[in-house]
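pasting for the record
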Amino acid sequence: MIFKKKLYSLSLYFTKGMYILCVFKVIFFGNNTIKAQNNNSKINLIIDADTANEVDDLYAIVRAVNEPKFNLLGITSAQFHTSPLATDNTVLESQRINQDILSLMKRQDIPLPIGSNIPIIDVSVPSSSAASRFIIEKAHQLTKNEKLYITILGSCTNVASAIVEDPTIIPKLSVHYIGFWHNPKKNTYNKIEFNTGNDPIATNILLDTQGLDFNVMTATTSQHLVFNKVEVDRYLKDKKGIATYLVNRWETYERWWTKEDPEKTSWIMWDLAIIEALVHPELATRKTFLTPKENKQRTIGIYTNVDVEKMKAHFWKHLKKIEK
């Protein structure tokens, strides 16, 4: 979840909303758009989410569950220890909400391996968990020509740990991360952002890993996917089950990073952007860039634009299937 996420006032916490300009220069690799693969097979997907940290993770997960284009192998829980609202066990908070979502959607068949509650403290030492081991297991179960897609909606702890534990899975992965800020014109990066700040070592492991298919839906791009409470109420209010759960989460979660919009009339759906981009790649532009200058120089994919209105339309069309 990304903001956790956009900071509107000064804070000592690492948040996505700190608009701090990176002054270093990075060599721009190119303006090459990555074309979506024309593949009718289902996407083998694991969602890694710090679900309890905010609101948008819930909407992203609900969107992904029952999506015909996904073979949803599991949802892993992630820690978010830097939040001022954090308990001693944030990963367990995320785990419980993941369980609630799948119970309400009657999809208890989807595995929910719990992730690490602590970030990585050394590049050579994984923060091992059931989640990291699950990622390794599923990667090895794929056939030679298959890829395991992982969407990281929070900290990179679980995925980076899996790679450190078993580097042989690297060619099998296609990682899609919600994180940091990026200026595509200058190819400059700002890592002072919530998801990255919850495990900066893990983020750098993914940036530095040669051969890893690593793609980033940046805060710069996903911040434009904004939902209004009016439309949420129009589609979800007075429905039961997961619809009520989503509305209640919006209404009861207190945004600690801003005093603006006290009525919570709108919310940035950062994490939903990456889910919709995977379902409808034609609604997102992804280009290749060199990694930040402090990282090993290699190319990664960065989403530079999304079609907000069409993404929203597809989301609500999908959720209309929820029974009243």
